[in-house]
Amino acid sequence: MSVTRPLEGVRVLDLTVALAGPYGSLLLGGLGAEVIRVESPGGGDIARNNPPYVGKNGIHFGVRHDDEVSLTILNRARNKKSLTLDLKSEEGRALFMELAKACDVVIENASEGATARLGVDYENVRKANPRIIYASIKAFGEPSPYPNLKGMDIIVQALSGMMDVTGFPDSPPTRSGLPIADLIAPLYAVNGILAALIHRGRTGEGQRVQVSMLDCLASLVAEEHFDVFLEHGYPKRSGNFQDRLVPFGVYGTRDGHVAMVAFQPDWFQSLMEAIGKPELATDPRFATRGPRMKHAAEINALIEDWTRARTNAEVVHELQERRGVPAAAVRSPLEVLQDLALQERGAVVKLEHPDLSDSHAMGMGLPIQFSRTPSQFDQPAQALGASNDEIYRGLLKRSDAEIQQLRERGVI
Question: Which domains does the chain have, with CATH numbers?
Answer without folding.
Answer: 11-220+339-408 (3.40.50.10540), 243-330 (3.30.1540.10)
